[in-house]
Structures are given as C-alpha cells and as structure tokens.
Amino acid sequence: NAGVTQTPKFQVLKTGQSMTLQCAQDMNHEYMSWYRQDPGMGLRLIHYSVGAGITDQGEVPNGYNVSRSTTEDFPLRLLSAAPSQTSVYFCASSSYPTGGAGELFFGEGSRLTVL
Amino acid sequence: LAKTTQPISMDSYEGQEVNITCSHNNIATNDYITWYQQFPSQGPRFIIQGYKTKVTNEVASLFIPADRKSSTLSLPRVSLSDTAVYYCLVGGGAGANNLFFGTGTRLTVIP
C-alpha cells in the first residue's frame, strides 16, 4: 500500500523559478491538504480540497496555487519561488470530507530550498 | 476556528507516564480533538482522537473535560522511542474543513 506519495523529496530552486510539488494518494480519499513546516512554527495549512474540482485556502496560501482534477492527485504549484518559501512541505489526505473527524494520512515530505 | 496552545517541550525519564496538555478555548461544538506524533524527517502519524470524556487505545489515552476547552494526551510508561514532537489538532466539525496544527510539544525521553 503506497498511501500518500510526494515527489520530489528534495528540491533546490533559484528565486523566481517555478515548480510543482506532486502529491498522490491511492486510498480514494476525498479530503487532501498541503502543509508547510518551518522551525518553531509547527505545521501551517496552505490549501486544502474536499473533492475533485473543489479547493480552498488555508492559513498561508499566498505564493501557492493548487488544483484537484482527480481524486488521487493534488499538486502544489509555486509560480515564482521566494526564499521565504524554503520549508518542508507535507501533503495529507483523509477519508472524511471535513478532514478532522478521523485520521489524516501524511506523506514523507518534500524539502524545498530557495536560494 | 479553534487554535491550540501546547507546552513547547517536556522531558521525562523512561518508564514514567507523560501527560501533555493542549488548550483550545475556541473549540466549536462539532470539532474533534486529534493528536499526532512526528519523528524527524517523517510526516506526522495519528495517535488518538476524541470528542469528549476519555478515549483509550493501545498506545495512549485522551482525556477531555466537560467544557472541552482543553485536552490531555497520556502516554503510559514512555520509552526512548517515544521521543518525538506531539501535535494537538482541533477541527473537523460540520463546515470546518480547514484544520490547524499548533506548534507542537517536543518530548524528550531520558534513559
């Protein structure tokens, strides 16, 4: 069972470059979300989705775009990377529509460095 | 939206019971309380979830008072492998589709 798969695991970007962090889950979960984790800040919600075609902003959405064309995939796009986006990014999914009731399954994380 | 407050860090000796408390004064009626464990370079992992009173599973207990404004994660007889960061998460009530983690509690178990 793959669960939640994130790619790439590591990435180095230059300021202004764009990239997409991929997230895929094979559990047929409706709820998916992206978090960033910075030292001393815990996990902060970037964007989330409660089903294909439906996305919404979380706590720190600026500088990031998402789309949900299929149930399985929830990519996170950085349009113009900035050093402030250096972080570890986690994707999570849940079988519950609201995400909070029940277990969130997390990927292993993607470590992004923006120079 | 319920935000959470936890102690930044705690130390405990092996074999002791550890209690980590989380404050969530603005919890909504339909919100759940969930605790996660995170090891370095890994994603958080579900430990336990509750709505009210007490919940127990094979690894932990969760105590929630009647007013639900706080919760306590109890880890019985901790071992070195329990050294990790523990997060309290509140949310999931009807209409509350976004979930917020706090800064977590770093538990260090000492031999």
Draw up the topology in text:
The complex is a heterodimer of chains A (115) and B (111).
Chain A: E1 4-7, E2 10-13, E3 19-25, E4 31-38, E5 42-51, E6 54-57, E7 64-66, E8 76-78, E9 87-94, E10 105-106, E11 110-114
Chain B: E1 9-13, E2 18-23, E3 32-38, E4 45-50, E5 53-56, E6 61-64, E7 70-75, E8 84-91, E9 100-101, E10 105-110
Parallel strand pairs in B: 1-10
Antiparallel strand pairs in B: 2-7, 3-4, 3-8, 5-6, 6-7, 8-9, 8-10
Euclidean distance between termini CA atoms of chain A: 36 Å
Q: Terminal Cα separation of chain B, in Å? A: 39 Å
How much beta of chain B, percentage-wise?
A: over 45%
Largest sheet of chain A: 7 strands, mixed
How much of the sequence of chain A is in beta strands? over 45%
Average pLDDT score of chain B: 90
Quaternary state of the chains: heterodimer
Radius of gyration of chain A: 13 Å
Account of the protein in words:
The complex is a heterodimer of chains A (115) and B (111). With 115 residues, chain A is mainly β. Helices cover 0% and strands 50% of the residues of chain A. Chain A has no helices and eleven strands. Chain A has strands spanning 4-7, 10-13, 19-25, 31-38, 42-51, 54-57, 64-66, 76-78, 87-94, 105-106, 110-114. In chain A, strands 2, 4, 5, 6, 9, 10 and 11 form a seven-stranded mixed sheet that branches. In chain A, strand 5 (42-51) and strand 6 form a beta hairpin. Chain A starts with a strand and ends with a strand. In chain A, 39% of the residues are buried. Chain B is mostly beta strands and 111 residues long. Helix content of chain B is 0%, strand content 49%. Chain B has no helices and ten strands. Chain B has strands spanning 9-13, 18-23, 32-38, 45-50, 53-56, 61-64, 70-75, 84-91, 100-101, 105-110. In chain B, strands 1, 3, 4, 8, 9 and 10 form a six-stranded mixed sheet that branches. A four-stranded antiparallel sheet of chain B has the order 2-7-6-5, with no helix packed on it. In chain B, a hairpin with a 4-residue loop joins strand 5 (53-56) and strand 6 (61-64). Chain B is globular, with a radius of gyration of 13 Å. The mean pLDDT of chain B is 90. Chain A binds chain B through residues 4, 31, 33, 35, 40-45, 48, 50, 56, 58-59, 90, 92, 96-109, and chain B through 31-32, 34, 36, 41-46, 49, 87, 89-104.
